[in-house]
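Sharing a chain and its predicted structure for anyone who wants a worked example. Both blocks are below, sequence first, tokens second.
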Amino acid sequence: MKIEFKRLSEVARSGIIELMNNQLVRRQMPLAPSNFNEIDCERFIAAKEQLWTEHGYGPWAFVIDGRFGGWGGLQSENGEADLALVLHPNYWGVGKKIYTEIVRRAFDEMRFESLTVLLPPTRKKIKALFKLGFKEDGELRVDEERFIRYRLKK
């Protein structure tokens, strides 16, 4: 299996729109608009590209065996590197491999001392997060939505 990390601006908008409208994906994304359309997609890509410009890092598009499989990576959240991983259900089995590469880049190449993950309180299946070494680290509000913050130290 070949996994490529590309910029979101390098992949077809249709794949991003399909992913962001997938009901299984949307369940865990309280900030996503109810019907993610082409205008939302352009704004989304522009916002993610702005992160690269401002911080020198941001999320990638994951191309798996030549097909768009999802997006994620690191985003600045309150001055900290926050890890996001949003995969199409067809690629959920690839998440650990992608996660491992993101963390390697974050700690080895970008020299972060810790990473955070923000999950909505509705996300109950989090044992895997603890097995990866994350520890609960408070709460945060983003656009009026409540999230639980988890932290992984280098």
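Comments welcome. The beta strands are 3-6, 59-64, 67-77, 80-87, 114-119, 135-142, 145-153.
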